[in-house]
Input
Amino acid sequence: MRIKLLFLLMFFYAAPVLALLPIAHWETAGGARVYFVQNRDIPMLDVSIDFAAGSGFDRGDKSGVASMTNHILQLGADGMDQDDIARRTADVGAAISARFDSDRAGLRLRTLSSAAEREQALAVYTRLLQKPTFPAAALSREKTRLIGTIKESDTRPATIAARTFAELVYGAHPYGLRSSGEAASVEKITRDDLTAFYRQHYHPRGAVVAIVGDVSRDEAAAIAERIAAGLPPPPAAAAVLPPVDAIPGKVTRRIPHHATQSHIHIGTLGMARGDPDYFPLYVGNYILGGGGFASRINEEVRQKRGLAYSAGGYFSPLAQKGYFVISMQTRKEQAQEALDVTLKTVRDYVANGPTEKELRDAKTNLVGGFPLRIDSNRKIHEYLAMIGYYRLPLTYLDDFVGNIERVTIADIKRAFTARIDPDRLITVVVGAQDAPATAAATPR
Output
């Protein structure tokens, strides 16, 4: 695969009409959308199916049901227990894993493409998807394990900062819920909750099948039909994510903690997938906080002043508006200085944008690193699943470099000014020196 990609990339700039990764797309009889890239170079096959079943579809009183459904789905099906599943996949060198985030949930399969091995792997995979048993013993065991993990995690300043930030950014929206659930909500989860969530969300209508590897178009179509055909029938009304409300105003929360370092999160709402300003924000954030040592925030906070070992930021685009966050850890006595420097850096950047040199260097780094984004079937498969789920253009990867090259300073200034108001940011400091547990808000 590497040789083929390098050959194609030699012609990437000279021949814009060349399809770097030709993506075939169709729908199954039941309405699942299928995305397929053929690669005969290695005898491997990557298959996945994703559903609108992420943590954004949880309810506050039962948060954690979505995640637990996705996890227990893999632990028993149609006469197979966890040991049977592990043995049957290991026998043919296959691997089944979960994908789970705020928007989507599903299962991935990686297997040899040879007929016998592929058949056994697909047999296990489809039984898990179509006939899960949600074993009561496995649920009880996993609940106990997860509750212990949550309680231990809740003592860590990093967790407290991330959880508080999410709650302040999203308010009552389910994106603000912890994906694993809370200890109290996990304790309430029953097997009936899992089966009900499965029937509501794990159906073919709107599901996304991604297939990459050593099969023909006809074989890929048969695999997709086989996976989707035996899923539960779609419900009368499909679940939808509610829109995210605007942040009401500036909020600063300082939370005492005995840790020697302060953990800082600064941010606001960002963008959704498919935002027309995705590339100006992506390139602009690389310069501001996403480019590691090359970013302004790291330069100002770490390299010039030694206030943190690392500091940076990123956008997290989702089906609805994701967040924008800058995070760092610093000694308690330096927390306010680090915060002041970061806020000044953001304010200056939003007002003035990057320099010509910063933009040129960012484009060079991003374009130069692009081949590494698609240098394996696994990476291509991840992109294919994302393109399918968020209904991005089939030419997304073909257009990636050109979209970066077209970004201007004016684009970045406009995009950041429209989304990042330095006077209305959410700020969380866990372990602030002599910090009272208070929050100050400025109404809209």
About this structure: The longest strand covers residues 261-269.
